[in-house]
Amino acid sequence: MSSVMSASRQPIEYRDATSEVRAVYDDIMKTRQTNWVNNFWKVLAHDPPTLRRIWGNIKEVMGPGLLDPKIKELLYLAVSASNGCRYCIASHGAAARKQGMTDAQYSEVLAIVGLANETNRLVTALDVAVDPQFL
Amino acid sequence: MSSVMSASRQPIEYRDATSEVRAVYDDIMKTRQTNWVNNFWKVLAHDPPTLRRIWGNIKEVMGPGLLDPKIKELLYLAVSASNGCRYCIASHGAAARKQGMTDAQYSEVLAIVGLANETNRLVTALDVAVDPQFL
Amino acid sequence: MSSVMSASRQPIEYRDATSEVRAVYDDIMKTRQTNWVNNFWKVLAHDPPTLRRIWGNIKEVMGPGLLDPKIKELLYLAVSASNGCRYCIASHGAAARKQGMTDAQYSEVLAIVGLANETNRLVTALDVAVDPQFL
Amino acid sequence: MSSVMSASRQPIEYRDATSEVRAVYDDIMKTRQTNWVNNFWKVLAHDPPTLRRIWGNIKEVMGPGLLDPKIKELLYLAVSASNGCRYCIASHGAAARKQGMTDAQYSEVLAIVGLANETNRLVTALDVAVDPQFL
Amino acid sequence: MSSVMSASRQPIEYRDATSEVRAVYDDIMKTRQTNWVNNFWKVLAHDPPTLRRIWGNIKEVMGPGLLDPKIKELLYLAVSASNGCRYCIASHGAAARKQGMTDAQYSEVLAIVGLANETNRLVTALDVAVDPQFL
Amino acid sequence: MSSVMSASRQPIEYRDATSEVRAVYDDIMKTRQTNWVNNFWKVLAHDPPTLRRIWGNIKEVMGPGLLDPKIKELLYLAVSASNGCRYCIASHGAAARKQGMTDAQYSEVLAIVGLANETNRLVTALDVAVDPQFL
After folding, report:
1. pLDDT per position as a tens digit, F83-135
2. From CA B35, how far away is CA C103, in angstroms rounded?
3. How far is C19 from chain F (nearest CA, A)?
4. Which chain E residue lies closest to D55 (C-alpha atoms)?
5. CATH number of F66-126: 3.20.110.10, 1.10.260.40, 1.20.1290.10, 3.40.1110.10?
6. How far apart are CA A81 and CA A93, in angstroms?
7. What confidence tens digit (pLDDT) does each residue in B70-129 have?
């Protein structure tokens, strides 16, 4: 009987994937104009409906919209940094780089993430009433 | 003896503030070009060194830098939404509005915050290995 | 059929409690040398085994030990503030007050809670390697 | 002087344990009908009262009750996955497997954990009022 | 200019909804066999693509699968309780009730959520190594 | 183009640091009366204004105040343990050791952190009303 952390959750490579999974991999590569798929999708591929569903969400939410693609990646990166998700920081950090994020801009993002986490706790602990001007 | 949630933590108005506290209030209003100070600062004013220190941090981190002021506010707002800090959402939401954030853009921010929280958990639970391409 | 937020979770007063629940209330009041029981216990009383179990844990962990009772309450308060649990801040804030925590000391506690939340995120996002000196 | 991460927190094996600690190990193995004890308990064993207390809690909460043992393990696993506790996912994942959780069922658990984290943030950020029907 | 917490985020009633939004409301009511829609959806309705997308996710993840519908609701409820999302506890608590969750079963769920949060922190702080048996 | 996790974030040693960064390193060593600087600062050094700002905050908040230095380190350690920041536990654990924290006292800290996380969730999920005595 396999563990939840076992080989049963190893990344599934394109050559080993079903046609259903390959179709998602193909769409990821086409959408991102790359020739490889990152591990997150290859691990999700053990559960094809979830692979398809999550990719559909990412494609819609992170696709063309009102905010600039770079801003969207910075937001995803900031939330991932705030949550301490190492893989997500690596993958969305790479995506933000691709959109032009510099080292110095990343430092600004992290400074904001850190400070927001500080003031969020102070505000909540102090139970500050929302100003009428904000309502 | 007062409670940690008592009147001793009510907002301190300008007219009731010491000159040390007024100096910070003045700098907040001058920097933001407003004629009022929001409750967060008025509650922090019970502890003037913390008021001065946190304002100094906000002024430096959220002041002119490499990222556009609007992007900075969107990042602060996204982290606050992810952390569920109602007051912070209200105050940084107002600041983002001031910088031009529309209703529809705010919807995009929230969609990213929500989705990042979903995928952050999936990635962490699945213990996905960082791709060499991201290192 | 009742809601999870319904009257079925209203505080159970001493006069309405079973002898099993009263025994816990009595022990709480005796241990704390008070003549009342706060709402947390009165709500837990809908599930007497949990009431008894959680009180047993609190009595053991927060009872006499190696750290001063005041320090213990400050630690409980700090974690509750970090987690944003309003009721817990109120109740453990009151307990800390009883142990002598002043307004100014509470401000120091909150400053530490806020700053730790900031640096915790920076450290995790930057994936800082533990120094050999710390191992 | 030892570090908080030093050898002083290495797992304590049965052969090296005091009789007080062995009694808990024996009860864990008897209750779980296994012939080994996992690292969590062996590390907690540096603090025998905490070892005894936490085991007592687990034994009571996770023991026979109203919900099926498998459901209980799925709930523990879901919360651990939501909190990103790698060890807890591994240990409660193994326990859930023992109760019959399949790979595909685990995928469903993770899908729920992920989606709940997404909608939890949306709901909180949008400050949605509780419907009267739910009260 | 409206606030992020303003009337622009008030629930949109069926009579005031566009046909695109009504189609989602209709599908929610048909799927759940109810004659009303709860506030979460009515607030999301300000952003129809997100309304449609999130409902699509919920319908797929919480629809018929391998785990019993009641178990699924208990899992959603447990994660929501762990995250402290009051609205989500109310709404998924109601859904779990509908599936047969009793008061006493809910108490068991909460006991597991609380204990998992305790041991998750102990395990992480103690940096416990995953046992080979779990890999 | 470098990754967010690349060599561009490796610790900057004193010999390789600019005079601006060295000035902060010197102040850290002087303040702490040590002859080395830990990795957190050496990684922050890629962004000198953040290095200076965060050190200024730590120096002020963790410097002499109303609470004993040992208590301050225990509070920082408790919050870091609650947040699961491994590096922070190691570094503030070492600082607390230096202030006299024993193994047994650390066990008490962790017991409080764990229990607070448990009761924080119970209280929030049960939506317990704050007692008038605490207001």
Report:
1. 999 999 999 999 999 999 999 999 999 999 999 999 999 999 999 999 999 98
2. 30
3. 23
4. E119
5. 1.20.1290.10
6. 10
7. 999 999 999 999 999 999 999 999 999 999 999 999 999 999 999 999 999 999 999 999
D61, closest residue in chain C (CA to CA) = C50
Asked if E93 and E77 touch (Cβ cutoff 8 Å), the reply is yes
Angle A115-C115-B52 from CA coordinates, rounded to 5°? 75
Question: Of B81, B119, B124, which has the smallest distance from its Cβ to D125's Cβ?
Answer: B81
Domain boundaries, chain D: 11-63, 66-126
Best of E54, E57, E66 to mutate (most A CBs within 10 Å, chain A): E57
Shortest alpha-carbon distance between residue F26 and chain A (Å): 23
Place domain A66-127 in its CATH homologous superfamily.
Answer: AhpD-like (1.20.1290.10)
Per the structure block, which two tokens stand in for D23?
A: 């009694």
Distance CA B89, CA A120 (A): 9
Count of C-beta atoms within a 10 Å radius of residue F52: 18
ipTM score of complex: 0.96
At position F83, the amino acid (one-letter code) is N
Q: How high is the pLDDT of residue F7?
A: 53
Of D111, D124, D104, D105, the C-alpha closest to D82 is D111
Say which residues have a Cβ less than 8 Å from residue D105's Cβ, sequence separation at least 6. Answer: D74, E66, E67
E103–C46: do the CB atoms touch at under 8 Å?
Answer: yes
How close does chain F come to E69, measured CA to CA in Å?
22
Provide the number of CB pairs (under 8 Å) joining chain E to chain F: 54
Please state whether the predicted TM-score (pTM) of the whole model is above 0.90.
yes
Superfamily of domain A9-63: AhpD-like (1.20.1290.10)
pLDDT score recorded for residue E9 = 84
Please report residues of D whose CB lies closer than 8 A to that of C60. 49, 53
